[in-house]
Amino acid sequence: MSSKTQKQLIAGLDIGSTAVRMAVGQIVPRGDDGDGYELQILGAAEVRSEGVSKGVVASIEDVVSSVSACYEKTERIVGSPIDTVWLGISGIHILAQHSKGVVAVSKADNEISEEDVTRALEAARSISTPLNYEVLHVLPKSFTVDGQTGIKDPVGMTGTRVEVEAQIILGASSQIKNLTKAVYRSGLEIDDLVLSILATSEAAVTSRQKDLGVAVVDIGGATTGLAVFEEGDIVHTAILPVGSEHITNDLAIGLRTSIETAEKVKIKFGDSVPDNISRKDEIDLYEMGAADHEVIKRRYASEIIEARVEEILFKIDQELRKIERSGLLPAGIVFVGAGSKMPGLIDMAKKHLRLPAVLGYPLEVASVTDKVNDLGFVTAIGLVKWGSMMIGRPGVAVNRPNPIKSVSKWIKSILP
Question: What is the structure's pLDDT at 32?
Answer without folding.
Answer: 59
